[in-house]
Amino acid sequence: MKIAVLSTNKNLYSTKRLVESAIKRGHECVVIDHGKCYVGIQQGKPSIHYKGQDIADIDAIIPRIGSSVTFYGSAIVRQFEVMDVISANPSPAITRSRDKLRCMQILSGAGLGLPITGFARSASDVDDLIRMVGGAPLVIKLLEGTQGIGVVLAETKKAASSVIEAFYGLGNNILIQEYIKEAKGTDIRAFVVDGKVVGAMKRTAKEGEFRSNLHRGGTAEIVRLTRQQRETAISAAKAMGLTVAGVDLLPSARGPLILEVNSSPGLAGIEVATGKDIASEIIMYLERQYEAKQLLKPTTVKRKVKKESKL
Questions:
Q1: pLDDT category, 221, cuts 50, 70, 90?
Q2: Are 67 and 144 in contact (CB under 8 A)?
Q3: Which residues contact 35 (CB under 8 A, 6 or more apart)?
Q4: Which CATH number covers residue 67?
Q5: Domain enclosing residue 44, as ranges
Q6: Which of the two residues, 126 and 32, has the higher pLDDT score?
Q7: At residue 142, what are phi and psi to the nearest 5 degrees?
Q8: Radius of gyration of the chain (CA)
Q9: What's the pLDDT score for residue 146?
């Protein structure tokens, strides 16, 4: 296969590991900056151009779409799909997972455990919104935030009201979420590939911090999931339509609660913490998809044509 990793930075750990694993398994692999791709749309002949050339020889792609370019990146993934190229994650699922509110609504509809979450348009609803999520302390999140950026813990109702009103005053969309005290600054990242958890780590926030993100100074260690945690992670990825996903879970008194479902989960933390080759799991999934696709191709039957005898 010829596999393309869609990434804006070929030097990132995750990008390098995917390329390394693909080549190790006997595939050709290239890194394509999806931000520099452009598409041609015409009847029966969709195309993608990159650096002045038509790239029509790609068999499979692994999207590593950053949150700041979700719209354009998903459009490029969609164009590859139109061209019948296999994708590690489908474009609608990438778009769906990046909208935190939509993600919460889908997971809620699927009956999966979540922290109580509120969403409103104006500051006039603040008091009822705070009551809805169980009062202070509570967590306030920017809808567009990533890696723990734009996430605030408000210890009191007064502090919560001030922060919420400030965000609304700046025109930001936010979620107000129940604070799970028993988590004690920890969460679990379960890495799901093709309906199976292939690795899991427990992340712990640094002292004085409630966000356990590794980008915020948190630490990670391998963890053995309970059956309920495993089933919740798999169900969350399925509900979102993601084949490759990082599912973040909070331990709570009422069972695992889903914080987020990430469509481009990083490999560095999970591979270092677990010692597992997660990148190869993604490549092997593409191999299975490619083999299944080849089996579905119609076979060409060569007919023997009798030559007419000359009279």
A1: very high
A2: yes
A3: 8, 69, 72, 73
A4: 3.40.50.20
A5: 2-97
A6: 32
A7: -70, 135
A8: 23
A9: 59
